[in-house]
Design brief:
Helices cover 43% and strands 14% of the residues. The protein has helices at residues 8-17, 22-38, 48-51, 53-56, 88-101, 106-111, 123-126, 132-144, 160-169, 175-180, 213-219, 222-227; strands at 2-5, 60-62, 72-77, 113-118, 150-156, 181-183, 231-234. The chain contains twelve helices and seven strands. The protein is an alpha/beta fold and 235 residues long. The longest helix is centred in the N-terminal third of the chain and has 17 residues, at 22-38. It has a five-stranded mixed beta sheet. It comes from Larinioides sclopetarius. One of its GO terms (molecular function) is phosphatidylinositol bisphosphate binding. Residues 92-211 form the CRAL-TRIO domain.
């Protein structure tokens, strides 16, 4: 039987997320612990030389600068993901590392996240991984298990793959979440929501190359990974 050790820092993160509503914070924390029990493969076996590809090839990363309101920006480029080279399991590990470790930062704990999703996709490459189980895991993990919240999702280059996923999940997404999703007709529309200085050049912004592998290496220290989602020990 496994026992879980939860550090004080993680407890405070969940309390801040729910504005010190103890019941809501504890419910979210229990969700995370259960997620780790059910999907241990997401929380073990991580190797920096593999996970770092998500930043090097711009699959899923954080932009280096915050919004004026203090939100950190999570950036996803679906078309840069080649499942034959970077497996679904590795992608799930990336999600767990990034969406938990980013909340070690106090400003992110307080202000939360926004997401820019470049949904351009080759359906022949991606559709077979868009099962309801995978999509629900993505929803459940990012909405109900992390110690922080996304305030908005900005989708550009809407593709058949993305429309299929959205349609499949439509019946279970709460109205509050649906209102957070903004589907833009052009990439330049992002500049109506974000300062031009912090948006990558590919979207009409002024942000040139950036590299967060230094941050990733730090949060992937073995001691940090052992505590990810709570430290499990044998009774």
């Amino acid at each position: 039987m496994l026992e879980v050790e939860i550090g004080d820092d993680l407890i405070v993160q969940f309390l801040r997320c729910e504005k010190y509503n103890i019941q809501e914070a504890f419910s979210r924390l229990k969700n995370l612990i259960q997620l780790k029990r059910d999907h241990m493969e997401m929380f073990t076996g991580q190797k920096y030389e593999i996970i770092s590809k998500t930043c090097i090839y711009n699959i899923a990363t954080f932009l280096p600068y915050r919004c004026p309101d203090g939100c950190a920006i999570f950036h996803v480029c679906l078309d840069n993901w080649f499942p034959d080279e970077f497996s679904v399991v590795e992608l799930k590990r990336v999600g767990a590392i990034m969406l938990l470790q980013v909340f070690q930062d106090l400003m992110t704990q307080v202000n939360g996240l926004k997401a820019i999703i470049n949904a351009k996709s080759n359906p022949l490459r991606h559709l077979k991984y868009c099962s309801f189980q995978n999509l629900y895991l993505m929803y459940h993990g990012s909405q109900l298990c992390i110690p922080g919240k996304f305030h908005s999702y900005h989708v550009v280059n809407m593709s058949f793959t993305a429309r299929f996923c959205l349609q499949l999940m439509k019946t279970i997404l709460p109205e509050e979440l649906k209102r957070k999703i903004h589907i833009h007709d052009s990439t330049e529309e992002l500049l109506d929501h974000f300062p031009v200085e912090i948006i990558p050049e590919e979207y009409g912004g002024q942000l040139d190359r950036y590299d967060i592998t230094g941050w990733l290496k730090k949060v992937m220290d073995p001691e940090e990974l052992e505590k990810l989602g709570g430290k499990f020990t044998n009774l």
